Amino acid sequence: MIRRDMQEVLDIESLSFEYAWSEEEFVKCLRERNCIGMVAEHDDRIAGYMIYEILNTRLHLLNLAVAPSMRLAGVGRQMIGKLVSKLTHRRRRQILLEVRETNLGAQKFFRNLDFKAISLLRDFYEDTTEDAYLMQYKQQETSGFTPVNRIARLAS
């Protein structure tokens, strides 16, 4: 996500959410060292975007939306796939996100991608008294071969 993407991102945001992020909120978040903004493009237009935070042991998805004309075309699934590909067996093994209690479409979308609601966050949002579900994706354990860092093994 770059500065010139902002107007299209804001347009998608306002069409997607009743309580949309402002440009100031996007810019403030993206100025943080550990926040990443990504866009998905189709025919030189932004089809969707996501913003996530890189934390020590997990990724935290802060915002994700797909342009109304591109919904049900697999754009959101591809963006989440990209996020899942950033998980590692040794360090970051999970993705967390919050979903409004009333956003049934998002809850279903994430459940279909193997996210689980693990907690109810009471009065979570600043703009309303609405609750949120904390949802988690955990990287699957792999059986068999586990890569070993040869240098770390030799140093111990």
CATH superfamily of one domain: Gcn5-related N-acetyltransferase (GNAT)
Unreliable segments of 5+ consecutive residues: none
> Would you tell me the overall average pLDDT?
91
Helix run count: 5
The major sheet is characterized as: 6 strands, mixed
Q: Span from first to last CA?
A: 41 Å
* Beta fraction: 25-35%
Which H/E pattern describes the elements? HHEEEHEHEEH
**CATH top level of one domain?**
Alpha Beta
Strand adjacency order, main sheet = 1-2-3-4-6-5
Number of strands: 6
Query: In the CATH scheme, what's the topology name of one domain?
Result: Aminopeptidase
Architecture of one domain in CATH?
3-Layer(aba) Sandwich
What is the 3D form?
globular
- The percent range for helix content is 25-40%
Q: Radius of gyration, Cα only, in angstroms?
A: 17 Å
Q: What would you call the structural class?
A: alpha+beta
InterPro entries: AcTrfase_RimI/Ard1 (IPR006464), Acyl_CoA_acyltransferase (IPR016181), Bact_Acetyltransf (IPR050832), GNAT_dom (IPR000182)
GO molecular function, one term: protein-N-terminal-alanine acetyltransferase activity
Keywords: Acyltransferase, Transferase
Organism: Bremerella cremea
